[in-house]
Design a protein that fits this description.
Layout: H1 8-16, H2 21-39, E1 44-62, E2 69-85, E3 88-105, E4 108-122
Antiparallel strand pairs: 1-2, 2-3, 3-4
Helix pairs in contact: 1-2
């Protein structure tokens, strides 16, 4: 949802609902850099659907501090979407696999660690219903 916002503070607040600690700053800078590139004529991505394929809890326990409850999840999912740039669009489905460390914070459970394990483009199936271009897009 962070891409739904344009103001830096709104982007940061949206990410803070899911991400914690130093990872929050890293993800914020990556997302905001993407938004700035979009405003300068770069590619704009729109997600149509996210399909979880597999979620496996690998471990449950506490962090090395011995106090903070945590768990690790290995997840695999597909994302259908489009990339709009230079007056045209590319429709695609990408599959991702990642390992997340989720920790208990005063504000609730937050992602504190992320490790991308794989990402690949897969063909979209027949009947892939393409959404309309974003406002101002072609």
């Amino acid at each position: 949802r962070a891409f739904d916002y344009t103001e830096p503070s709104e982007v940061y607040d949206a990410l803070a609902r899911s991400v914690d600690g130093s990872l929050l700053d890293t993800v914020f800078h990556e997302v905001y850099r993407s938004l700035v590139l979009a405003e300068e004529g770069g590619a704009v991505s729109r997600v149509k659907a996210v399909r979880p394929l597999r979620t496996e809890v690998e471990s449950v326990g506490v962090l090395d501090d011995g106090l903070t409850a945590s768990f690790t999840v290995n997840a695999r999912w597909q994302v259908d979407g489009a990339v709009f740039h230079w007056g045209h669009q590319h429709w695609r489905t990408n599959e991702h696999r990642a390992r997340y460390t989720v920790v208990a914070t005063e504000a609730g459970w937050r992602i504190a660690g992320a490790q991308s394990l794989a990402q690949e483009r897969v063909e979209s199936g027949p009947g892939f219903d393409k959404p309309s271009a974003p406002e101002g897009g072609k």
